[in-house]
Amino acid sequence: MLYDALYPPEIVWAGFSTMKHDAVRLSDGLRQLELRPLGSGRFEVVRYTSPVALEYLNPHLRPGTVLRLSAALDGAWAP
What we know:
With about 80 residues, the protein is of the alpha+beta class. It has two helices and four strands; from the N terminus they run αββββα. It has a domain at about 20-75. It has a four-stranded antiparallel beta sheet with strand order 1-2-3-4.
């Protein structure tokens, strides 16, 4: 690996291996939705990937959107 920076690698990568990522990934085989639990049945959208370009226009799947678990169970979106 080539590393060229002003700071030594020990400082740049300090704490990298101890990072905690508690996101939940949901997939139907083609699409993938990554959610971070916020508590009280709420989840924040971290990432959405899909082979269908038009699905990226859905504002409810935009990163940072907060979804409620009860809305997902009812089949309705509630940002």
